[in-house]
Amino acid sequence: MTDTRPARLVVLVSGTGSNLAALLEACQDPAYGARVVGVVADKDCAGLEHARSAGVETTVVALRDYPARGHWDVALAEAVGVHDPDLIVCAGFMRLLGAAFLERFPAMVVNTHPSLLPDFPGAHAVRDALAAGARRAGATLFWVDEGVDTGQHIAQVEVPVLPGDDEESLTARIKAAETPQLIEQVGLLVRSAGPGRP
Predict the structure, then answer these.
(1) What single-letter DSSP state applies at residue 146?
(2) Are the C-beta atoms of residues 105 and 77 closer than 8 Å to each other?
(3) Residue 47 annotated as lining a ligand binding site
(4) Can you name the residues that pair with 88 across neighbouring β-strands?
(5) Which residues are catalytic?
(6) In this predicted model, what pLDDT tens digit does every residue of 86-137 receive, in sequence order?
(7) How many folded domains does the chain comprise?
């Protein structure tokens, strides 16, 4: 008998939760094949409200509450692990995941980043693209490894950099392409025979 239960998603957030909100909406359709079973944040943030409004359990695991980074990685892994996830989605999560976390969830973590990686990794991708005079930008969905935005790519979507763009306008254009890519690709991963892991 085929297992037809929805895949269990845990989403990691640090900010407004716009990608989380889109995932929660997509999961309302049984054909999507997944449901968000937990949302974990590294601080109190607006993204948690999206989860609470949808009746999804939330947890905050703040780095400042732990004596060392390694302890935080273990605590974060524990907070995620209680949900028995099939896939972990970093949706605006602004912390690197360490060895203790990634060893517990090998090839189970995806992240979306607002650049066409390997160009402009790190926390200021849009600002860096503008400063470099880039003519194109976009978003990359990738498997998370221990590096900074270095994991194997799953998908990319490109948008133009227009004359007069500033960080706000380019971020908005990227987000308008990034969110649909995230929703589509997570759906494809969970509906496949199993996530197409690297």
Answers:
(1) S
(2) yes
(3) no
(4) 10, 109
(5) 113
(6) 999 999 899 999 999 999 999 999 999 999 999 999 999 999 999 999 999 9
(7) 1
Q: Which domain holds residue 53?
A: 7-191
Establish if 197 belongs to a structural domain.
no
Q: pLDDT for 2-23, tens place per residue?
A: 457 899 999 999 999 999 999 9
Please say if the pLDDT value at position 75 is more than 70: yes
Question: How do strand 58-60 and strand 153-160 relate by DSSP bridges?
Answer: unpaired
Q: Give the pLDDT confidence score for residue 5 in this predicted structure.
A: 87
Q: Which residues contact 66 (CB under 8 A, 6 or more apart)?
A: 72, 75
Question: Is 18 annotated as ligand-binding?
Answer: yes
Domain assignment present for 196 = no
Distances, alpha carbon 198 to alpha carbons 11, 88, 119, 152, in Å? 20, 15, 21, 7
Question: Is 1 annotated for ligand binding?
Answer: no
